[in-house]
Design brief:
CATH architecture of chain B: Alpha-Beta Barrel
Structural class of chain B: alpha/beta
Radius of gyration of chain B: 19 Å
CATH superfamily of the largest domain in chain A: Response regulator
Distance between the termini of chain B: 15 Å
Distance between the termini of chain A: 23 Å
Bound molecules: iron/sulfur cluster
Shape of chain A: globular
Largest interface: A-B, 30 and 36 residues
Shape of chain B: globular
Oligomer: heterodimer
Strand content of chain A: 15-25%
CATH class of chain B: Alpha Beta
Mean pLDDT of chain A: 95
Order of helices and strands of chain A: EHEHHEHHEHEEEHEEHH
Low-confidence stretches of chain B: none
């Protein structure tokens, strides 16, 4: 899932300094699971902003809504009735949410409440870690199921580099060296020979570097008559 | 000495470019080994810089990953790592041997014909993989190898035995890296703060109890060179990495019997 964390309250308050009434939109997807942008957190942020403004002598009116997912237009429709008289919309979704909201409500000032961090998973309660760099050309079959693109600080495909020591990465003694993990895993699998092959340079055009990416499933597209979101 | 390494923004601190500095020393009559890391340039910039460097007379190229930018004076920079060091070695060799750009497109003009080097760190982990990785670099086309600074002679000896057993010393020139230390603090710093380095406590202790730590540091270095020359098979030469102490190099070279240097045409 996508892991996003809330921005500092002062930063969010700064965006809406001149607004009297704002709509806060939470998301029932990833950010609910990672406990930063669901129903509870959206309510808490709204009251924190109200308190801050009341203390400053400029009360703020807030409307709170949580949609199933902000990354699907059909769920955003539900906001039509509440956006009309607000001065700004604050999205608590990942970076996709504010863009979908801005696309739909073109005359509204839409701001993010979140810093979208990474694609990852839960390590233990309250701890999430990055696992995939969304490179568009997965190499996990070569690396024992451990991603070198994002878990190696240099994204090298022929590791480990000379900074790997005692299983840790050169950048931090608390960070595992992905290539040590890969080595250990391939050893268990009896596939250490894989590491002798020189892995050629990656095709980064399938990654972020190729501009916005698109995925189409033809059968689904052809059978549908919905409009494209903007 | 025969040649001098010019680092490419080592520890990710901004310095004059290795190619620029290499040309300066070339003009002074010193043979440069220009270092090229994968940290700051994508494959387009790397090739373009290499063409420029070769056109200006640079002939030796050391390919390495580069220290992560978080160590340097621009920790908020974005790193590149479009290619890694092993891919770089192979692609630079392909430029020379097959006259092809990294993309596989053919060259029209003069192809850069670098003498291609790589680094090896016997002190990084996993130890058992270090010789494999060196072999991988040689398979990729590395013609000479410079090792990380050696203090743990026992581990280096084991590493070289494994290299010799595989005949790697016959496929590439392996240069042993040595660094004279000025003080026990410098030794302690390398021991505790530089990833991929092993400094035995004995060295720290000797420098700490020495009356003249610099003299002791020089002597330790000379002992290491002597040991490697006499006891370790497969080493073709030395790389004196005189960190912030360049003026000691002549003493090291002469003191270890490596002077005068053979003349090569
Ligand atoms: S190789 Fe690419 S797709 Fe696979 S886990 Fe890593 S970043 Fe994600
Ligand atoms: S120490 Fe390991 S994880 Fe860190 S940059 Fe080197 S190979 Fe990658």
């Amino acid at each position: 899932m996508i892991i996003a964390e809330q921005k500092p309250i002062a930063e969010i308050a700064g965006y809406i300094e001149n607004c009297n009434k704002v709509l806060l939109v939470g998301c029932g997807g990833c950010v609910t699971v990672c406990l930063t942008g669901g129903e509870k957190e959206t309510g808490i942020l709204a009251s924190a902003l109200r308190i801050k403004r009341r203390l400053e002598g400029r009360p703020l009116e807030t409307v709170v809504c949580v949609v199933t997912r902000q990354c699907e237009p059909e769920y955003i429709d539900a906001l039509d009735s509440v956006v009309r008289d607000v001065d700004a919309i604050i999205s608590l979704a990942c970076g996709i949410g504010p863009q979908y909201l801005a696309g739909r409500y073109k005359d509204k000032y839409v701001v993010p409440a979140m810093n979208t961090r990474f694609a990852g998973g839960a390590k233990k309660h309250g701890v999430w870690e990055e696992y995939c760099g969304l490179c568009g050309d997965c190499v996990l079959s070569l690396t024992g199921g451990i991603c070198p693109v994002i878990r190696c600080a240099k994204s090298i495909l022929n590791g480990p580099c000379g900074g790997s020591q005692n299983g840790k990465c050169e950048i931090d003694r608390d960070v595992d060296c992905a290539w040590q993990l890969i080595h250990d895993r391939l050893k268990i699998l009896g596939r250490l020979d894989t590491l002798k092959e020189i892995v050629p340079p990656k095709d980064w055009s399938r990654s972020r570097d190729g501009g916005p990416r698109k995925m189409v499933i033809e059968e689904v597209r052809n059978g549908s008559n919905t409009e494209e979101a903007n | 000495m025969d040649a001098a390494n010019i680092t490419d923004c080592q520890t990710a601190v901004v310095r004059m470019s290795s190619i620029g500095a290499g040309i300066h020393i070339l003009r002074e009559g010193v043979e440069p080994v220009v270092q090229m890391t994968c940290r700051d340039r994508n494959r387009i910039a790397i090739q373009s810089d290499l063409l420029g460097a070769y056109s200006l007379g640079i002939r030796n190229l050391l390919c390495l990953s580069g220290d992560h930018q978080m160590f340097g004076n621009h920790p908020t920079a974005k790193n590149v790592y479009d290619v890694d060091s092993i891919q770089l070695i192979r692609l630079v060799r392909r430029m020379k041997d097959e006259k092809l750009f990294f993309s596989g497109e053919a060259f029209n003009g003069q192809e850069p014909r670098f003498f291609v080097g790589a680094v090896a760190n016997p002190f990084a982990d996993p130890f058992e993989y270090r010789v494999d990785r060196l072999e991988k670099k040689i398979n990729a086309g590395a013609e000479f190898i410079q090792t990380q600074t050696i203090y743990d002679l026992e581990r280096f000896t084991r590493f070289m035995e494994m290299c010799v057993a595989r005949g790697l010393h016959e496929r590439a020139y392996i240069l042993a890296g040595v660094t004279p230390l000025k003080s026990w603090r410098a030794a302690r710093f390398l021991q505790t703060s530089v990833p991929g380095m092993i400094v035995p406590d004995e060295i720290v202790r000797r420098l700490k109890s020495a009356e003249d730590p610099r003299e002791e540091g020089k002597n330790i270095c000379l002992e290491q060179i002597r040991y490697i020359k006499e006891k370790v098979k497969g080493v073709s030469g030395f790389h004196v990495i005189a960190i912030s102490w360049p003026e000691i190099v002549p003493d090291i070279v002469k003191g270890s019997g490596l002077y005068p240097r053979p003349v090569i045409d």
